[in-house]
């Protein structure tokens, strides 16, 4: 970058970008935590209402709508955080290294290092945790509600219907596990 007339000013701009990216990553991570916590609290309240017998089917339906939306929000924010992190590795680090003559790994070591070999394992565990949290609460709420109104739905669950339902549930579960483990 020999065409930069004021290297110190350029480094100051890169440092400002660095600080802005760090703040944005922190903001998005905190927003993820808040939404994640709120989902768990709302799920616990709905589970409490269902177990006490005071829940309506609308609450369970709302949980069915909210769960995928919250999971989608969580995944989207996670993707944005990853994208912002790549800006450290591909833009700020190499630019600052070129001006200072240093190795990019030495400029911002914590941001340039992407986690090494265990990164894929951490990503897989994060994905499994998110799916389990989001769909375990949903599944428990549905099962608890179904058991609370069992007398009403029992005629729908004769032996031929049970076999079909069990087959579909096992199939969906198996496909979900395979998809999660393959990623």
Percentage of residues in helical conformation:
over 70%
What is the subunit arrangement here? single chain
Largest sheet: none
Could you tell me the number of beta strands? Answer: 0
Structural class: mainly alpha
Total helices: the number is: 7
Roughly how many Å apart are the termini? 39 Å
Q: Quick one: overall form?
A: elongated
Strand content: under 5%
Radius of gyration: 24 Å
Mean pLDDT: 79
> Can you tell me the residue ranges where pLDDT is under 50 for at least 5 consecutive residues?
none
Order of helices and strands: HHHHHHH
Secondary-structure map:
Blueprint: H1 7-52, H2 57-100, H3 104-107, H4 109-112, H5 119-148, H6 150-153, H7 159-182
Helix pairs in contact: 1-2, 1-5, 2-5
Give a description of the structure.
- There is one protein chain.
- The chain is mainly α and 183 residues long.
- Helix content is 85%, strand content 0%.
- The chain has seven helices and no strands.
- The protein is elongated and about 80 Å long.
- The model has no long low-confidence stretch (mean pLDDT 79).
């Amino acid at each position: 970058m020999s065409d930069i007339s004021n290297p110190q000013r350029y480094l100051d701009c890169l440092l400002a970008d660095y600080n802005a990216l760090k703040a944005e990553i922190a903001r998005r991570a905190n927003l993820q935590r808040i939404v994640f916590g709120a989902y768990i609290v709302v799920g616990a309240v709905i589970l409490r209402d269902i177990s006490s017998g005071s829940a309506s089917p609308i609450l369970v339906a709302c949980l069915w709508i909210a769960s995928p939306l919250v999971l989608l929000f969580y995944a989207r924010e996670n993707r944005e955080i990853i994208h912002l992190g790549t800006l450290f590795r591909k833009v700020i680090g190499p630019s600052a290294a070129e001006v200072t003559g240093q190795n990019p790994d030495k400029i911002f070591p914590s941001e340039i290092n992407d986690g090494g070999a265990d990164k894929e394992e951490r990503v897989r565990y994060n994905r499994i945790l998110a799916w389990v949290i989001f769909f375990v609460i949903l599944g428990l709420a549905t099962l608890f509600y179904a058991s609370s109104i069992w007398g009403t739905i029992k005629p729908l669950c004769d032996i031929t219907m049970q076999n079909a339902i069990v087959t579909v549930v096992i199939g969906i579960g198996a496909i979900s596990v395979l998809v999660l483990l393959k990623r």
